[in-house]
């Protein structure tokens, strides 16, 4: 397999619509890879900011006097959250490490593809970490039942904003990209819109004599 081969069939199908749109830009494949890599780095900075704040909060808790009042299950949950914070940081920094080790080896496109996967994995880890930290705080302050309710509500909001909304927008973009060039919106009766009418067509869509 050549180094320029696509990461997989799923990636090719997922990026087909985006590739058609990106070909409208006046740039070479190398310039496109550089631009995409900058986008990955910008998103990594946003993710790392949230992860660092939560990690600092968790690490500071262990040195508070009230930490000794936690029961066994709360301490175990706290340790799980610390491990999740560490894993989120490791996953988010993986593209940077790969880019450094593959520097000037012509692997920018593969590095960008890996960065995209790692960003998605980091989003999953960060969402779980956010829900876990909130549930941990509510468990200490308001009780286990309140923690479960709040975590469930926030989990639904995360799924809506981070999964459902991007999925709907992605499906809409795919339908728009697959629409034939020059095709207008469909009418209620299933006929072609004004943009589909040929040259010389009148208001009803038929050609004028």
SSE layout:
Layout: H1 9-14, H2 16-22, H3 29-61, H4 72-101, H5 108-141, H6 144-178
Helix pairs in contact: 2-6, 3-4, 3-5, 4-5, 5-6
In short:
The chain has helices spanning 9-14, 16-22, 29-61, 72-101, 108-141, 144-178.
Describe the structure.
The chain is an all-alpha fold and 209 residues long. The protein has one domain (28-178): Up-down Bundle (Butyryl-CoA Dehydrogenase, subunit A, domain 3), CATH 1.20.140. 69% of the residues lie in helices and 0% in strands. The protein has helices spanning 9-14, 16-22, 29-61, 72-101, 108-141, 144-178. The chain is flat and about 60 Å long. It starts with 8 loop residues before the first helix and ends in a 31-residue tail after the last helix.
């Amino acid at each position: 397999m050549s180094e320029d081969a696509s990461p997989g069939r799923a990636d090719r199908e997922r990026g087909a619509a985006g590739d058609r749109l990106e070909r409208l830009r006046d740039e070479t494949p190398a310039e496109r890879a550089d631009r995409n890599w900058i986008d990955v780095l910008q998103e990594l900075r946003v993710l790392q900011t949230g992860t660092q704040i939560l990690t600092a909060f968790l690490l500071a808790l262990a040195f508070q006097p009230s930490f000794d009042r936690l029961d066994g299950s709360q301490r175990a949950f706290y340790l799980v959250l610390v491990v999740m914070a560490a894993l989120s940081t490791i996953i988010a920094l993986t593209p940077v490490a790969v880019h450094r080790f593959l520097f000037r080896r012509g692997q920018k496109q593969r590095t960008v593809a890996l960065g995209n996967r790692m960003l998605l994995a980091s989003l999953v880890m960060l969402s779980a970490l956010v829900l876990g930290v909130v549930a941990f705080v509510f468990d200490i302050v308001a009780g286990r039942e309140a923690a479960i309710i709040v975590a469930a509500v926030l989990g639904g909001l995360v799924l809506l904003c981070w999964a459902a909304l991007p999925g709907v927008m992605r499906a809409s973009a795919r339908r728009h990209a697959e629409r034939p060039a020059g095709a207008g919106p469909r009418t209620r009766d299933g006929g072609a819109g004004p943009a589909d009418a040929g040259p010389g067509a009148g208001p009803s869509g038929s050609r004028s004599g």
